[in-house]
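Chapter review: from sequence to fold.
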Amino acid sequence: MDHRPARAGIGHVRGVTDDLTRPSKRSPSSTIVIKLGTSSIVHEETHQPLLSILSSVVETVVNLRSHGHKVVLVSSGAIGVGLRTMDIPQRPKSLSKKQALSAVGQGRLIALWDNLFGQFDQRIAQILLTRGDISDRTRYLNAVNTLKELLSMGVVPIVNENDTISVSEIKFGDNDTLSAITSSMIHADYLFLLTDVDGLYTANPRKDPAARKIDIVTSVADIRAQVSTSTLGSNLGTGGMETKLIAAEIATGAGVTTIITSSKIPSTIVDIIDYYTTLRLSSCPSSGTSSPVPKLQTIDLEHVNSSLNLKRPPHTVFKPSPVPVRDLKAWTSHTLYPAGGVIIDSGAHAVLSHRESGGRLLPVGVLGVRGSFASGQAVRILIRCSPEGSVAEKSEKRSHSAGPDEKAGHVYSEVSLSRTSSSSSLVGDLESDTQTIMDDDMHVMHDSEESDSWEVKEVGRGLANYNSAQMSRVKGLNSSRIPQLLGYADTEYVVENITIRIPVN
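The token string follows.
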């Protein structure tokens, strides 16, 4: 038995967790990701660790584990702890100094977590990631498998960005984004973004007395027009409310219920999960006990809560997407750094906006290419913001005339590009093909120069099956022309695993 004395501020936890009332057997076990920012870990001015908050977080995690939940902690604070260790008054601006401070602070930060969790014999593991680490599909899957294995072993993984080696091109940007991607990787049920306020407000509640808290968000895109996200976070951190909205958009798109609440009382996390567990169980059909527990996105939260008259813990909840994007599409959309872009017509955009399309793009729907990229790299899916009467509008009319089915791309391209029935010999066909290929090359050179001047906007992302030069040669053509122009055809689709973030209105 461990006879180590309990540290100040957490010695009472063991007694508290022993007396917890466990939920009923029907209460679902959840996978939970908790993100804690630098301002919640170290004091903004003295850089001293905020032991009271850290101890409460440890108590909360142990509490959740005792209820059968699996927990991942995303912890910032390495640079903040490094500032205290090296007795440096403020966060430096140079990248090399920040990376050096991160190297100093990360070891002490994980030691602090290990010490606190060690009071309850709770094992932890350190996982340091960069976007570059998971931009490779194999390494991404290895990270997923490691996280899942640790959770199955009863370990609490503590994730942080590897600031020591990160550069701008491979940074997540902030740990809000990292926590969202982590929750997507492990198919978490909840993502808690702990901050210095108890939810999402229409304005900064410290400065605007008229600021109103928003309890339920069903669409991040729709809520942006209603709130002010001008807060930039603390002097030590890199985030603010805008980064939390980005994180919520990523996580809810992957089917993860995302919650913003205060870091000052971490035990609120337990109350919130109990609250939603009660709502879900109360929404079960009364006809039988074996009915599955309804998912949160299928419940009218306000209606169920009013009927039960439950006390709602302070927080903002972002309801998960009813049709989540996971696995390969989620990886393509959020973890890869896009190398270039593919401009599509509005007909292709309309087709790809439907889940039934399979997220696959035929060359006939491509108007142009931006940048240079290799086969297998992530690309932005772009649409043209064009004036009336332009080439893009003509293409739009052509695409829409084909109807809503994706395979219609074959129909209209084959009609416009097929040989006439009067072709009477193989020699005639070969001569026709050769002349068409020469014409296509001239067409590609002209269109490439023209498309470079177009104003475009990103609507999604996908994985390129052909490089940028090859895609420029086959754009706008039927997929049967690919072998003639490129000499081979691995697939009829130029881009696959497309996730459309901005569907057709």
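Two observations follow directly from the output. The CA atoms of residues 271 and 487 lie 62 Å apart. Residues 1-26, 231-239, 388-442 have pLDDT under 50 and may be disordered.
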